[in-house]
């Protein structure tokens, strides 16, 4: 490959609109693109766009067509693809086999839609309500438990044939700032990080994880003030410390943690110099591409380093291609898996361990879409609306509530300040299947099976 081709091969770009960005890929020889929610118009349109991207490229390996599809609030591709609840559900379920099954199901559907890479699972260990970025994207606050869940998910994705990318090394769940808005600072030393944040990554690397995304955080005792994916010593904690020899991926280079201190070109070159291999979402693709070519020309970035990074991308995509195609009929076929996740995750935080909590009439409050989904499930179960038991549904960005029954649909921390006369329940999701599982419990037809995967200050949940 020419230097220009090598420079493009290590870039995965964001694009605008819903049509396949064929010209962008061709102009800069891109390694691939990432599909965001605003690129998704319909399943048919996405299938066609992804098909065009692959068929219009003459390289003998597939493009990276990546997507953030963790479940819960980080879901870019909507129905009819099976929707899964937040990843914390799997920590609450305590079912490692289910974690693998859910990842296998999601991975198969994504591959059937033409995706080759998924930026999941989230391997971060959350430290609680002071973690503003990860929250329910994490399986929990117990590092060893998180490690078992993440390892199982990694194996499920690998089995599906899609390339999973663990994130965000060296751990974003234990910092108290959001890297989308600023550069968070990690004050803990390496020994402490090894005992907490590194554990899920170490477990999954040993299980064969092919790719790891770095975080835009400063590890102050190692490389103060430098985002991890641009810091050679922090990348070294992954490659040399843990022994990871796969693809090192940056977090989105358009995020404020990077753009506040680096231009698009500088960020791209610095990341490659640091040991990152795949550059995700440069703020300016043309500037990033040009800077890489210029850096090789002036010797500040060796051609050998660029070739090494590009070769890792190519080898991984050739391996992905060998998995073969998945029939599109599989898309949307795993609603029972999603329901099983929510049924096994639903947790009694306060109140009786089993219902019925509701008899006859029920009145739900919350966001209109979530109330509608709840009412649909309740009506199918034979419950009536108006009066009766009040059920407050608290969405991801909602505040504390007061009702007979309070249900958190995302992070359970909001239950701490809520008031309920009958029960507080953590559901970790708002999918139709999650609402069905909730109604089953409220009506007394199912027993809540989940266990709280995080500590809630001042609350001791019953041993159900």
SSE blueprint and pairings:
Elements: H1 3-9, E1 11-13, H2 22-28, E2 32-35, H3 43-55, E3 64-67, E4 69-71, E5 74-75, H4 88-93, H5 96-112, E6 117-118, H6 143-160, E7 163-169, E8 185-186, H7 190-195, H8 198-206, E9 211-214, E10 218-219, H9 220-223, H10 232-242, E11 247-249, H11 256-259, H12 264-274, E12 279-280, H13 285-298, H14 303-321, H15 335-345, E13 347-351, E14 361-365, H16 368-380, E15 384-385, E16 389-394, E17 402-408, E18 419-426, H17 432-442
Parallel strand pairs: 1-2, 1-12, 2-3, 3-6, 6-7, 7-9, 8-10, 9-11, 14-15, 14-16, 16-17, 17-18
Antiparallel strand pairs: 4-5, 13-18
List descriptors:
464 residues, alpha/beta, TIM Barrel, 2 domains, 6-stranded mixed β-sheet, 15% strand
């Amino acid at each position: 490959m020419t230097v220009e081709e090598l420079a493009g091969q290590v870039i995965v770009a964001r694009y605008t609109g819903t049509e396949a960005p064929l010209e962008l890929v061709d102009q800069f020889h891109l390694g691939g693109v990432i599909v965001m929610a605003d690129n998704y118009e319909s399943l048919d349109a996405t299938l066609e766009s992804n098909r065009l991207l692959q068929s219009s490229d003459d390289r003998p390996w597939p493009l990276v067509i990546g997507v953030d599809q963790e479940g819960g609030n980080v879901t870019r591709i909507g129905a009819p693809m099976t929707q899964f609840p937040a990843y914390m559900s799997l920590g609450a379920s305590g079912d490692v086999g289910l974690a693998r099954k859910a990842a296998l199901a999601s991975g198969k559907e994504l591959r059937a839609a033409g995706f080759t890479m998924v930026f999941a699972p989230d391997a971060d260990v959350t430290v609680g309500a002071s973690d503003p970025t990860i929250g329910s994207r994490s399986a929990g606050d117990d590092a060893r438990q998180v490690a078992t869940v993440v390892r199982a998910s990694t194996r499920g994705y690998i089995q599906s044939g899609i390339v999973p990318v663990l994130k965000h090394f060296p751990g974003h769940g234990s910092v108290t700032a959001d890297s989308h808005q600023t550069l968070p600072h990690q004050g803990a030393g390496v020994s402490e990080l090894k005992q907490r944040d590194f554990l899920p990554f170490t477990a999954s690397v040993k299980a064969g994880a092919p790719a790891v995304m770095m975080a835009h955080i400063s590890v102050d005792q190692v490389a103060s003030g430098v985002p991890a994916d641009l810091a050679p010593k922090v990348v070294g904690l992954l490659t040399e410390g843990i022994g990871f020899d796969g693809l090192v991926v940056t977090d989105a280079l358009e995020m404020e943690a990077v753009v506040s201190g680096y231009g698009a070109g500088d960020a791209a070159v610095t990341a490659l110099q640091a040991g990152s291999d795949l550059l995700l979402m440069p703020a300016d693709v043309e500037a990033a591409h040009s800077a890489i070519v210029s850096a090789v020309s002036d010797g500040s970035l060796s051609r050998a380093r660029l070739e090494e990074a590009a070769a890792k991308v190519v080898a991984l995509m050739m391996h992905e291609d060998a998995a073969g195609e998945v029939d599109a009929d599989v898309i949307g076929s795993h609603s029972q898996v999603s329901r099983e996740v929510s049924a096994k995750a639903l947790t009694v935080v306060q109140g009786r361990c089993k219902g019925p909590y509701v008899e006859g009439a029920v009145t739900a409050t919350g966001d209109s879409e979530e109330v509608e989904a709840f009412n649909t499930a309740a009506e199918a179960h034979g419950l009536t609306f108006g009066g009766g038991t009040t059920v407050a549904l608290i969405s991801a960005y909602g505040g504390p509530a007061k009702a007979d029954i309070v249900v958190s649909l995302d992070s359970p921390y909001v239950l701490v300040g809520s008031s309920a006369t009958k029960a507080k329940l953590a559901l970790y999701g708002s999918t139709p299947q999650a609402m069905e599982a909730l109604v089953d419990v409220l009506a007394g037809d199912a027993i809540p099976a989940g266990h709280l995967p995080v500590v809630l200050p001042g609350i001791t949940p019953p041993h159900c």
